[in-house]
Amino acid sequence: IVLLWNNGVDWLDLGILAVMYIFTGAGITVGYHRLFTHRSFETKRWIKITLAIAGSMSVQGAPIHWVADHRKHHDFADEEGDPHSPHTHDHEGVKGIFVGWYHSHMGWLFSRDERASASRYARDLKNDPDMVWVGKPFFTWVLLGLAIPFALGFVLGGFSLYAGFTAFIWGGLVRIFLQHHATWSVNSICHMYGDQPFDIE
Asked: FRET partner for 23 with CA separation of 20 to 30 A, picked from 8, 54, 144, 173?
């Protein structure tokens, strides 16, 4: 970023990156995780739909499938059946660390065997017309999540296509990259290191 300053990135790009990261990140953490997966709170319909669309813009999957995977994870936390545990393999030593880290960080995404059944783990969302409506045009929300930073950069950058392009890169592609690795790090780093001074029942 330092080498690209005033050439490939500037304050406008980083501002758009921050705004998009917070908005779509809230879709994942507040919407997908706390509201849809754990049903930690209730809210108005328009907020629920907005959070689902914001989460979709982070390109981590439609709400129904994300929730199903996460609920399955909680059913089998770090035991056989957990879709993204770093501890459910037979390797030891350094190889075991690498295999576990890679699988839990992103490798599980490439294995259809690891994915959860939405009919089993997210039946409530499959029966929710709003979640079905948000989930069907998933790639439309993905494209919107890329179009918004471009439009912001274009308009706020003085109707410059170049400003729109750099905002698309930073507020779109870089933001998605950062969010993916932040989310995946919860599965990998946070499940590989640390103590558990309590029993899970």
From this structure: 8
